[in-house]
Queue: 2 jobs
Job 1
Amino acid sequence: MMMNNYLMLSAALFVIGAVGVMIRRNVIVVMMCIELMLNAANLSFITFANYRHDMTGHAFVFMVIAVAAAEAAVGLAVVLAMFRNRETVDVDEMNSMKG
Amino acid sequence: MGLDNIWWVPILPLIGALMNGLFGYRMGKVWTTFWALGTTGLSFAIALLAFGNLVAMPASERVFEKVLFTWVQAGSFTAEAGIQIDPLSGLFMLIVTGVGFLIHVYSVGYMGEEDAYPRYFSYLNLFMFSMLLLVMGNNFLLMFIGWEGVGLCSYLLIGYYYKKDSAADAGKKAFIMNRIGDFGFLLGIMWIFWTLGSIDYTTVFAAAPHSEELMRHTRWGGLTVVTLITLFLFVGATGKSAQIPLYTWLPDAMEGPTPVSALIHAATMVTAGVYMVARCNVLFNMAPVTMVVVAAVGALTAIFAATMGLFQNDIKRVLAYSTVSQLGYMFLACGVGAYVAAVFHVMTHAFFKACLFLGSGSVIHGMSGEQDMRQMGGLKEKMPHTHLTFLISTLAIAGIPIFAGFFSKDEILLSAFMGHTPGHIFYWLLATIAAFVTAFYMFRLYYMTFTGELRAEDHHVRDHVHESPFVMTIPLMILAFLATVGGFLGLPTALVHLPHVLSDFLAPVLNPVAAGAHGEVAEGGHHVSWQMELGFMAFSVAVATLGIFTARYFYKVKPEAAEELARKEGLVHTIYVTVQNKYYVDEIYDYLFTNPIVVFSRKALWKFFDVKIVDGTVNGVANWTMGISGVFRQTETGRVRNYATVMAAGCLVLIWAWIMYL
């Protein structure tokens, strides 16, 4: 079935995003990976909405896109502030919460 | 001003204390003086008028009680805040306010240069308030509050020069010694409440003679309850009035400013014990065993302290030991039931001892702060007013006729001789020897200070010797006048056919011991023939004169003789050194009580209990927490990527568990 392929693509995108968050050190890339994970979830929503002929899934997708836009705005502002203070975008440098 | 407003007498000094304590440093010295002298002077004026009203009343009605409000009410326990004026408290009120006011005036001159002038007067006024509360309260609790209050003020004023270690230590010593006595006093009060159900004087003294429990019941080795109660009360008196064994604080109290020594440690506070015993005479009369203890302690203190004063070189210390010794006389009088003689001696002693202390203060002032008599001498010409007043008071304390001390001391000696207390002849003998010693050391002091050549080596001191200003000498003159005429209130009735004014006045309050039991009264010489009285007087005058001439020989006529005697080897030397070191009593107390407590506190309480157990527990908990958290803090790397990884792993575990078990 076609649906299987969509879901497999969604899972692949999610794993790429998750692994990217875990292993990349550039904060911009980390944010892009988070974006990737969100969109993988969106793809699953759309797939199931289409399969079940239920518009609720579409509504959730718009919701996620709105949240993702807000998150990107705040996140980039944080990155900007961080770069101004530390002149780096390496997340491993940001370890002042070390116990 | 009627007796209704009598409560202003204690309150006014309190107002003065508050004003000077709170605003003294902002008001400036003039206003401080105004508040300090104004309140005490007004208080004295009111006391004088009230006393006049009291005397104007018929003798049997001379008790005035005014309850201001009920202070404590708990179950069957009631304590009122009330004032009781009767002949006894009226007399003490006059002594405290009168002598207190004079010493306030004197202090203006003596303490004028002090920076802490408002603090000094604040304490001094607070002392007046506490002492007036002590003597004017209508129940034992108010007396106790005043009792503690004067102890506190005494501590504050002894430690007035608190930057000096010796003064701070002396203050602590006085406070602790007093506290030991106060504890006994408090136990006595509690026991009175326990047996009689009240602490009000009127109720207690009315109920006591009829109380079965007081007289019949016995505790601990067969002593009656009233004996134990009075013994506890007397423990309080030994602390406050510096009797054996709690007297050691008084000589050290001389670290305070001299007017304080005059007011607190000679004229008023230390007589609180005598006041208390006289106030509780009903109880003490019921306890013959206690009376023997009181008389014995009094007589022993009189002779013991007198000998300690023999070879002291500090002018104030000689006076301190003489105070302890004179207080011993008062307790001797109480112990043989001659309460009137005791109160009479309190009064005359207040006059001449205040005068002596203030005179010594004037000398110290003139000598630029020097207190060692070996540096003095020949002050007769340089300080004529001080010299004359000092001589009068010295004659008064030595017991030379027409001066006040003669009459009161003679009455005490006669009462002891004629008393009923077991061993009274022995106490009389001790007191007579003490009278000789007193005359000797007081005139030793007089000759060393005022006659001969000025021995000060420092030429600044030599050139600076001067008479004190009038603000200091006028109180001296008034006190010397009182020390001269004060004795006429208690002329021996057997000799002159005039009434014993004081005895008649105090009669409603003070019940002579054995008055009912034996039907005869030894006190005041009522039943003493005039031949005997005259013989007695001649004997005591002879004893005093002998003391004076011995002192004259050693310290004026032939000063070398004294030095020669002091240098002698053998027994004489041993005695001299022992007496000069005050029989090593301080050292014995240190060895027996202070050092064990210090060692125990240091070794057991501090080094073991505090360091090992208290600190050990606290630090142990802290260390343990730190050790455990040291392990767990390793997980907090501060790296976002690690947190994300752990979170993802957690999610996977949850999903796996969900799939497997649901």
Job 2
Amino acid sequence: MKIDLERVSVRHPPTLSRRGEVLSDVSLAVASGEKIAIIGPSGAGKTSLLHVLACAQQPSEGRLLLNDHDPWTLSNAKLKDLRGQLFLAPQIAPLVPRQRVVTSVLAGRLPQLSLLQSVRNLIYPTNLQAVHDALARFDLAEKLFERVDRLSGGERQRVGLARVMISSAQLLLIDEPLSALDPQRGDQALASLCQMAHDRQATLIATLHHVEMALKFFPRIIGLAQGNVQFDLPVAQVTPALLTELYRNQTEVDHAFDAVQTAGDTIARPAFAPACR
Amino acid sequence: MKPVAHSGLRPKAICFLLACCALIIASFASLNLQFAAFFDSGTLRKMGLFIAELTQPNWSGAFWLKLLPAALETLAMSALGTLIAFVLGLALAIPASKRSLARFSLVRSSARWVLSALRSVPELMWAALLLISAGLGPMSGTLALALHTTGVLGRMFAEALENAPKDNEFALSVRGVSRSKIFFFVQVPQIAPQLVSYTLYRWENNIRAATVLGIVGAGGLGQMLSYYLSLFKMSETSSILLVMIGLVLLVDMLSAKIRRVLA
Amino acid sequence: MTSLIPTSAPDFSDIASQHLRDPAWSRRLTGAIVALLILWPMFEWTEFKIWTLWGPESLKQTGNFLASFFPPKLSNDFLIQVAHETWRTVAMATVGITLAIVLAVPFAVIAVRVLSLSALTGRMQFLPSAVREIVRAILIILRSVPELIWALIFVRVVGLGPTSGVLAIALTYAGMLGKVYAEILESGDPSNSQALMRNGAGRLQTLFYALLPQNADELTSYTIYRWECAIRSSAVLGFVGAGGLGQMMDASLKMFNGSEVLTILIVFLLLVWCSDLVSAWLRKFLS
């Protein structure tokens, strides 16, 4: 899916704890099938940017074009179809605790299923093979019929990624896919995601706190700080100086636990969406 | 200066107590209470006889042949009524729960109002009203329980739906998944433990209600009790009372077991 | 760099793919069949032939009855009568609850472990413990018999009228209030009461100086809530002859007088709604 952001700003009523402007004057052009990593300190607006791209947050200013259409001017039916082609994976995997992994993963197919088929899947899951294979890519095949609340945080995050895999989305927006994963699994997860995007010719945009991983897997890096795009470069041109400048105001760079912090504090909430945590 | 003594009670509390006393005195005065009649020697003797007969329940085979079907009828009334209320309550809870950000919604207010009306009419009153169309017998009792319990469960389910975390719903609605699919895939599984818990709790309550509904003619043990009591047959009455207590204990036990199995 | 985590799981996909079945399916299927087997007889036993409601005879009867509901009877005499009965319903509930409190408080105070002198210095002795268990058992019995049954028995003994209703409410609610009062009194912090008793205060003194003030809010709140329930109960008791709105509605129903029934029903709903408001307001007012 092709994306164009034209001078998009997102503003919320300011409170004591956060600024009003979450994204200011962001412009972006993404070709179909590109892979981009968005990096930046906490509160930079990375999650908000993903929400804008996912049509979950309407820009206060500027325009979003997906495949040359402005989703906010489409009819409800067309917007629904468009939504079915994108996938927003929040940082904390949105899984129902008492559900089994197989059902949670199958929920990735819901836009394509009719209501009757969906309910049938609740009673007896169809297409077990596809779910099994999706989980196998993230090393979770044996947890197929396990309950979600019996999995560890890292396993749940991988189930969330398996849901991405089973959907047939053309735009993959992944928020902090590595926050609960150790380096080994993180490597595997990103490799699987990139492979999947490549196989499907889908556009993949991920926000990451782990700068090294971003540089390792993604050919294009966007640095975001305080709602502004600081740089938008091919990975070869990203220098340590640029990175230091980007994280200038943050004392802990690339700390695994930052991922937990970003979700709550200064990132403004889209109007109808719950807080990220 | 001498310290001024004043009461330890807050003025609010004093007001309240005075109002209560006024209400209580007015109530006693306006009712024609005849405690004297209750405690005179003739009545006390009668009560003594009753109690003596009550300690000798009738456990004959012939009586069991009547007791057992009535007990099953009462049990079935409570279970079926609760089950119907579960379905209707969940159906009404959907419009009654806050799903949009609008402060006032006609659909939501109407649904809440219907649930409130259903809930305010006690089971026995519903049974009395339904007897006309559903006739004498356990169907009226079942419907009466179902209607009242729908109001109770519907309100509890609506609150459960409102208080459930919204993150999972959000993740699916971002992808354009329709509300009905979200309902089955996320909302119901999330509140499933509460659905079961509230329903079982109402079943425990409904078995107690079902035993007495028969007194107005809605079948079950209550109808038998009313009959034998009117004939002053205390030993049969005592057996019926004991079976009623037994049913209540049985349902309490089953309910605890189901909770454990489904937890 | 060696790692303790294998980079890929053993590949089960070849073996498993031909045999992937949902392990929960057989359990669910069995459960569904069992449920159906239980459900079917339930419909039988309750004679639940709901389609008869739509049979021509029944429909005509229901239709006539419903038609007779409108318009609700609003003549002055009738409304005055309804108001009178409404007051009697409230009065019955109030008297019933008052008597229930009079019964419940001593029971609760006896049943509460906090006031046990013997427990101050170690385990409670046998006799005080036994007395408490007996009192709790009495409360359970009082609570378990539905008030309608008490009322039914009393009406046979004493005759029709509010006395039976009042006594029925008093007994049942004494059980409920007694249990909850005991729970409330026990749930607070016992150190105040223990301190007083250790220093020689008597049990009743401790009750008035520590236990009651500490828990007054909760006790009052629960009592007000139960008063509201008692109003509903007293309306229901009218159906067995205890007077009030229930008895009025029973009489009108037996005469198929729909318009009267509708008026009484509306007044009853208003009564419930008002008592709900009053109860909520009182609880806020006092907290």
